[in-house]
Amino acid sequence: MTANKNDVIYDVHDKPPVGMWIGLSFQHLFAMFGATVLVPILVGIDPAIALFSSGLGTLAHLSVTKYKIPAYMGSSFAYILAMQSLMKSDGIAAVAQGAVVGGFVYFLVALIVKFAGKSWIDKVLPPIVVGPIVMVIGLSLAGTAVNDAMNKNGQYNLTFLMISLVTLFSVLAFNMFGKGLTSLIPILLGIIVGYIFTLIVQQFTGTTIISFDEIAKSSWLHVPNFDIMFVDYHFKLYPSAILTMAPIAFVTMTEHFGHVMVLNSLTGNDYFKDPGLERTLTGDGVAQIIAGFFGAPPVTSYGENIGVMAITKIHSIYVIAGAACFAVILSFIGKISALIHSIPTPVIGGVSIALFGVIASSGLKILVDSKLDFDDKRNLLIASVILVSGIGGLTLNVVGISISGVAFSTILGIFMHLILPKTIEK
User: CA triplet 256, 257, 261: central angle to 5 degrees?
Assistant: First the structure.
């Protein structure tokens, strides 16, 4: 299915009038804002850095793809579990190194695609492997979401649970019943509702859940707390970080392929041919390396922004570039960064339940859309091993190198797909 060019309001290279341009760019900024800043909050990284790297990464992606693809780059959820583990063990330096190596994985695949074509990708990462892996990404984070939603300092708290449920159902309501822009930013609106509800609860109970001290003390102009590679810390090799995060790049690549296909349909262009899949992959890789260099979470193309384009019929790269510039500017406003930091844990927990569930359900959708036969023992075994090993956190420790969770289950899935015969006799 291709787009009808007559229905498009602003095509890829159309430039809207300045006033409308600003408004349309802010709309894209709002669409990606909630999810992009949620990832660093969950990991323990300054959200302002994620905003900065998302904007800069998007501009880099536009440049690499010759300003032909209207794609916005935001924080990737696929790496959350790996980042949380690495932050506890080795800190931001390990996370950054894993992110940069993941970017080079994109470069490597881009080179292979350029010289060998892209048909081999489906052979290594078919739906029976990708679907369960995506499910693992979401379900592995379920414990974190529920813990944030109902526990205060490790102890069950009914007030926290009520706040998280109000937040969760707000996200659901905006997503299901919202109209226009409201339906495009349910995460951000859910956070706002949860935040306001927390203030009301705080007023009636007298307990302090949200503190405005940091907001009051922070300045309007503030440089994000960058952790710049080779500047803020000495280089050290982290093999565990590399082996944990690099395989996840293959998972986000499948998401990238899907997004490019959707953009092809929306715009009526074939981006696999022009500028070519090798350039779209390189653009993602450059954006991810930029994120790692500044100490931000790895980035990926965002479905939220594709949704904005689908509904508004506005595909302009100028609008996407404007949103990227606004993201960079916003990252230097200190009071905004402090306000984000003040978002209470149960609000994050409520939003996370919806988001992580959607990730897991997306993996299930891949299996359903592919019409895979689970009466086939081969499919049943591959999916079963990936799900249990990934969710259970099966870990390989060899000479100080640890591969666990999503990374190990991905490796196992690919290995099983390659060695198991296509038909197993009863």
Answer: 115
Specify whether the CB–CB gap between 404 and 81 falls below 8 A.
Answer: no
Q: What is the Cα–Cα distance from 396 to 393, expressed in whole angstroms?
A: 10
Please report, for residues 20, 242, 262, 280, 305, the alpha-carbon distance to residue 25 in angstroms, rounded to integers and kept in the order given: 8, 35, 20, 22, 10
How far apart are the C-alpha atoms of 68 and 15, rounded to whole Å? 13
* Torsion angles phi and psi, residue 230, rounded to 5: 75, -5
Q: What are phi and psi of 357, to 5 degrees?
A: -65, -40
Question: Helix 248-267 to helix 92-116 angle, to the nearest 10 degrees?
Answer: 60
> Helix, strand, coil shares of the chain as percentages rounded to 5?
70, 5, 25
In the three-class reduction of DSSP (H, G, I as helix; E, B as strand; rest coil), residue 425 is classed as coil
CB 30 within 8 A of CB 185: yes
Beta bridge partners of 407: none
- Whole-number average pLDDT of the chain: 87
| pLDDT at position 149 | 93
Token pair for residue 89? Answer: 């063990």
Angle at 409 (CA atoms; ends 408, 415), nearest 5 degrees: 90
pTM of the model as a whole: 0.75
